[in-house]
Each structure stands twice: as C-alpha cells, then as structure tokens.
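DM from R.C. (forwarded with permission)

"hey, sorry to bug you on a friday — could you get me a structure for this? deadline for the figure draft is monday and I only need the backbone to look sensible"
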Amino acid sequence: MAPKPSATVRYTAMRLGIFAGCFFVLWGLVFLGVLPRGLGDSNLLWVLVLAIVVSAPLSFVLLRGQREEMSEQIVGKVDRAKSRLAENRSMEDGVREL
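My reply, with the result:
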C-alpha cells in the first residue's frame, strides 16, 4: 500500500488545479471575445487577476472537506510536538533536581 500524501500537499495541489482550470477557461473566454480584453498589453494580467477572483470562492466551497482534513492533521502534529516538549521539560526538571 502506497503512503498517503500529506493533506496539505493534496489541498495545495487541488487549489492550484482549480486556479489553473479557471485561468484556462477565462483565457479561452477572453480569446473568444466573450469577456473583454485588458487594456493594451495587460491581457495576461487581467486573466490572472480574474482567475484569482473566480478560483478563491470556488476553492472555499469545493475544498471545505480537504481543508478540514488538513486542519486536523496540523492540529495533531502541533499537539504531538507540544507533548514532546512537555516531556523534555519534565525530564530536564528531573535531572536538575538530582
């Protein structure tokens, strides 16, 4: 069985995928004339900004479950790190008392 990739890596890849999909759809719509072109040579910048604006709410809605899984994974790691730190401190306190 292959190891499961990190929830953070999956979330980031999915978020980039949604952005790329939005970018190419919007680029096509601008190319076909459905959406207005940017001013002068700003066409690429216009499509990038529009793709960010469109992909952000889509990611927020579509990736809710993935975001919660990532959050749980991060909280688990932080809790384990805190417990290790507390154990190390208690061991140091025990050594100092001797």
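R.C.: lifesaver. The helical segments are 7-32, 43-62, 64-97.
me: no worries. Residues 7-97 form one domain.
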